[in-house]
Specification:
single chain; mainly alpha; 2 helices; 0% strand; Mutant collagen XI alpha 1 variant isoform A; collagen
């Protein structure tokens, strides 16, 4: 996949993952940091 496609995918899929992460709180906080970096917030 091209980097642009991955960024777009992570941006759309990342928001849902982020919301679920807040509610369920599964996995380490590294996941939230990764989503914040690659989820499109810093783009």
């Amino acid at each position: 996949y091209a980097p642009e496609d991955i960024i777009e995918y992570d941006y759309e899929y990342g928001e849902a993952e982020y919301k679920e992460a807040e509610s369920v709180t599964e996995g380490p906080t590294v996941t939230e940091e990764t989503i914040a970096q690659y989820g499109g917030k810093n783009i």
